[in-house]
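To assess whether ligand presence alters the predicted conformation, the chain was also submitted together with pyridoxal-5'-phosphate. Input:
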Amino acid sequence: MTSALEIADPEIADVIRREVERQNTTIQLIASENFTSLAVIEAQGSVLTNKYAEGYPSKRYYGGNSVVDEAEELARRRACDLFGADHANVQPHSGANANMATYLAILDPGDKVMGMRLDQGGHLTHGSPVNFSGRLYDFVAYGVDAGTEMLDYEEIRATALREKPRLLIAGATAYSRVIDFEAFRSIADECGAILMVGAAHIAGLIAGGAHPSPVPFADVVTLTTHKTLRGPRAGAILCREELAAAIDKAVFPGLQGGPLMHAIAAKAVAFREAQSEAFGRYASDIVTNARALAAALTAEGFRGVSGGTDNHLMLVDLRPFGVTGKVAQEALDAAGVTCNKNAILNDPEKPFVTSGLRLGTAAVTTAGMGADEMVEIAAMIGTVMRNPEDQAACSDVRERAIRLCSKFTPYPDL
Ligand SMILES: *Cc1c(COP(=O)(O)O)cnc(C)c1O
């Protein structure tokens, strides 16, 4: 049957069809991506997109909100239950917005904030000079230890006591080790800072019990719902009751206009899915697969940054292969393996080139892959890295990727 979209807009229908095919036939190792369920997609593709709902449930600025209010109530309640939080704001359109709203709620322009160095795993919203955060606030950074490539809590404590930030941020976009939130709490208490945890990447691991939760220790926890949490592309904020009013006011009217009610309904679906026992097994399988992939890559001759992983992602140093991150990403893309280049500690290459790759296992685990497939993928990556310019070797890997994906197809019915 021809769909409404195919009739109305064959060009966009074709883009969607080809993107389904790409996702079904190439290996997705981008650490921030996942395959959301058809239930989430259905909620997000619903008529809830039509509704304007500025405000919060039962305190809206427009009429006709009694039905969608229930979706937001369900999303908020499920988020609080899932993470054991006092309060949840489920309106942020994205992780960046969740962070921006948090800063707006807590800080004045020019205030000092301490976060992780961007070239060592921090996010753009942790003070990049080209981001609003770096322009509006006075960011100071902490990094990883040069030897272990892991967070050095004594160093962070010393910097925090010297700098006395108003806000301390824990959390990263490219860090493969468990983050000790209790240590961050005690540092925040010692220097008198508010503690925010940016848990965007690891939200699903936390929900599924595969990473310690920041909720008992942090004043505010920001999330994305589309990374390991496997929901729609969006954000959310959890906080202590004392900060609830300030956070809500910062999201709306401080930062955003009307919430995306279709996305909020889809977040509610994802929170419900994440409450299941199956999701707990999924979260633990992500970590098992990440460890298996990291070990297999080490056996292939790659150097794992910090020596391995405790979560869903790993950084690999490509220098043993004499290949840059940019060349690696492009060669792997052509061979049907999708991932991203990433700076490693003291990277000699420019940020657009880099010497590393960031690889994550959330999506391949959703697709049903296990330890055997991780070994196969590591071998495929090794083959491409040894022969990045060899067309025959790369098309051979492309064939292997297609074969693997035919057994582990994320959307067989799309
Ligand atoms: C992904 C991420 C974000 C931003 O999320 P978007 O939805 O892309 O805006 C913010 N902080 C951290 C730590 C992240 O990993």
